[in-house]
Design brief:
Protein name: DUF4374 domain-containing protein
Number of helices: 7
CATH class: Mainly Beta
Radius of gyration: 22 Å
Structural class: mainly beta
Keywords: Signal
Oligomer: single chain
Organism: Polaribacter reichenbachii
Number of strands: 30
CATH topology: Methylamine Dehydrogenase, Chain H
């Protein structure tokens, strides 16, 4: 059903007026729910494919999903063709998908178009059968029709979506008609954060804040230009939001380039109130922490581990400790670990044992039909090691920039491998032993690609 809204910000504030007045105090702490990836006797593995729009690999033709049992997912004699037989996940462009921890539910918020911002939930019943359950709700009044959202690891209870808007601030020195003596002061970044009750399809809370950098950074033209990937800390009382910085030339107020990349930053909010924003900075990693399509930070063993991107020294995995500050003694550099230059983390996911599968590219990646070639690595957060998974075949057209999801079952992680427009397979990585199992065949379509398993 098409949902139309007028005066979105006013409606959002009006809708939440009462709930904000009664928001939980800073002393309120959610009951901690440990993120556990149980081993299931059997579970669904949902595969998603992004159909070509105008160009190979753009994913703008829509998203199709198809579910198989984990036994079939591991069977190379099984063939899966989501592009012919899959369920169309509602979205004008590539859908932003999340799954319950047991794989039985798919959560979707459509991206852009008339239905942009609509939240729907589906029970997975196998094959192309995804049965809508619960009430559809739109988060567009709060964060727009192209929301950046994620499922928090709190037992499938809550989702969170974010946005940022920016405005350059110029001192006109009292002569608004004469711009010759105007002086740039800073760029104001206003963030919006909404939390969504995934169970009851309801808005929990919405807050807006102006989030500032240091006075020196702002005077030099730096500002927060994009945010994404909210993550709960282990105590459940803080929400971390990844950030990207941009810069203008203070003399011209035009976009700058070739500037010094600052230490990686994260916005920290009280949770569940979403109040009291602060910004923390890493001295180990530099570059962005907002990620792209895939979850960029995960809680493990009491800390949050976060990937960064566009780091001049190659992507790092950074660590935020229980004191809600970066642990700058934890130095995990992917260039060093993998023996490459310019490593760039595209997506990653740890199992409960602290070992993860990570998708990446680097300066030596081939230039494929849709972009730089991607690879997978097995990562150990405790040992700070990363090893390329050679058992998975690679191709110059193996494109992972839009990769979204990994399915986790105990220590096993399921992933998809297929070059743009070519067939491939599901692969299952036992993160404890490093054993890799080649699974079901993935049947592709012209110009299309697979964006993950859930």
């Amino acid at each position: 059903m098409k949902l139309n809204f007028l005066n979105l910000k006013s409606l959002a504030i009006l809708t939440l007026g009462i709930s904000v007045l009664t928001a939980c105090s800073d002393d309120d702490i959610n009951e901690t729910v440990d993120p556990v990836d149980p081993i299931s006797e059997s579970r669904w593995i949902t595969i998603a494919g992004a159909k070509m729009g105008d160009n190979p690999g753009d994913g703008n033709g829509g998203t199709l999903i198809y579910a198989v049992s984990k036994e079939d997912a591991k069977d190379p004699s099984v063939s899966i063709n989501p592009f012919e037989n899959g369920f169309i996940a509602p979205s004008n462009r590539t859908a932003r998908l999340q799954a319950s921890e047991d794989g039985n539910t798919i959560f979707n918020i459509s991206y852009a178009g008339d239905t942009g911002g609509n939240y729907t939930k589906y029970t997975v019943e196998g094959g192309q059968t995804f049965t809508q359950t619960g009430t559809e709700i739109s988060i567009a009044p709060y964060v727009g029709t192209a929301p950046r959202w994620i499922k928090l690891f709190d037992g499938d209870q809550t989702g969170s979506a974010v946005y940022v808007s920016t405005e350059h601030q110029v001192n006109d020195n009292g002569t608004p008609d004469d711009v010759s003596d105007d002086v740039y002061t800073h760029t104001e970044a206003t963030i919006g954060v909404v939390t969504l009750d995934l169970v009851n399809s309801a808005i929990n809370n919405f807050q807006e804040h102006v989030v500032a950098l240091s006075a020196e950074e702002e005077a030099n033209g730096y500002y927060i230009s994009r945010i994404d990937m909210p993550t709960l800390n282990a105590a459940g009382n803080k929400l971390y939001i990844g950030a990207r910085l941009s810069k203008v030339n203070p003399a011209t107020v035009e976009s700058d380039s070739g500037y010094e990349i600052l230490g990686s930053k994260t916005i920290v909010l009280d949770y569940p109130s979403l109040l009291n924003p602060t910004v923390i900075t890493s001295t180990v990693g530099h570059g962005n922490t907002n990620g792209y399509r895939s979850i960029n930070a995960f809680e493990y063993n009491g800390s949050v581990y976060q990937a960064n991107q566009s780091d001049p020294e190659g992507s790092h995995i950074l660590k935020i400790d229980a004191n809600n500050e970066y642990d700058n003694s934890y130095d995990f550099n992917l260039d060093d670990a993998l023996g490459v230059q310019g490593a760039y983390i595209l997506a990653w996911r740890p199992a409960a044992n602290g070992k993860a599968v990570l998708a990446y590219r680097h300066e030596g990646s081939a230039d494929g039909v849709a972009g730089a070639q991607g690879f997978f690595a097995l990562v150990d957060l405790n040992a700070k090691t990363a090893v390329k998974i050679d058992a998975i075949p690679y191709d110059p057209d193996f494109y992972l920039f839009q990769y979204q999801g990994f399915a986790v079952d105990g220590n096993e992680i399921y992933l998809t491998q297929a070059p743009v427009g070519q067939n491939g397979n599901i692969y299952v990585v036992d993160t404890e032993t490093g054993t890799v199992t080649k699974g079901a065949e993935l049947v592709n379509a012209e110009g299309s690609h697979f964006i993950g398993a859930w």
